Amino acid sequence: MHNADNRFNSEFVAALNQALTIIEGEYHSAEDLKATALVTIGNDKIYSNGLDLMHALANPAFMDGYLGLLRRLLTFCIPTVAALNGHAFAGGCMMAFAHDYRVMRSDRGYICMNEVDLPAPLAPGMAAILREKMAPHVYRDMILQGHRFTAKEALETHLVDEIAEADNVLPAAKALALKWAPKAKAGVVYKQLKDEMFTDVVAKLSIPYHRLAPRM
């Protein structure tokens, strides 16, 4: 992801969806199912700084598109790994947790949901992803304290699967992706397993965001 600090706006969401469509096409068009996986990585010291808030406020349809991207990635047809080269804040944190696995830079960067400090509400689908991916006390600290988790803390609390030095984040993420890539040979079953695993989360991510407006 190479869009400055990778804040999500409609154009960025559309570009990511286009990339996922290309990957799906390549995967499904192969004569024989192959070991396949997806790795995402950001720019320099930032994975993603979250939503472009001004854009989100000015474009009511944006949030439905963003939640749709999270839903698509959460149940993607092949294994996914987020290579966290730096900060993953708010919407960027959500992007990371929509992946199956995470590798985080060990010397710099935080994982953080800072909505409590903005302040800003959290859509039910976003909250559902976080509840699914972490222990209750970690969820409490992330949401109610806005705690900034270092790589060491993230590893200790199982928010990430591995940590690595800056130059080794992408190689480590690729190695983890290659480890689990053969599971993609399960074909449609792999996605079906994800769909079943995240049934409740997907249902909440599918709630039109405008229906949540009275909560704000």
From TrEMBL:
Cellular component GO terms, alphabetical: peroxisome
InterPro entries reported in the protein's UniProt record: ClpP/crotonase-like_dom_sf, Enoyl-CoA_hydra/iso
Reaction catalysed by this enzyme: a (3Z)-enoyl-CoA = a 4-saturated (2E)-enoyl-CoA; a (3E)-enoyl-CoA = a 4-saturated (2E)-enoyl-CoA
SUPFAM superfamilies, per the entry: ClpP/crotonase
Keywords: Lipid metabolism
GO function terms (MF aspect): delta(3)-delta(2)-enoyl-CoA isomerase activity
Single biological process term from Gene Ontology: fatty acid beta-oxidation
Highest taxon of the lineage: Eukaryota
Pfam families: ECH_1 (PF00378)
Keyword Metal-binding in annotation: no
Protein name (Swiss-Prot/TrEMBL): Enoyl-CoA hydratase
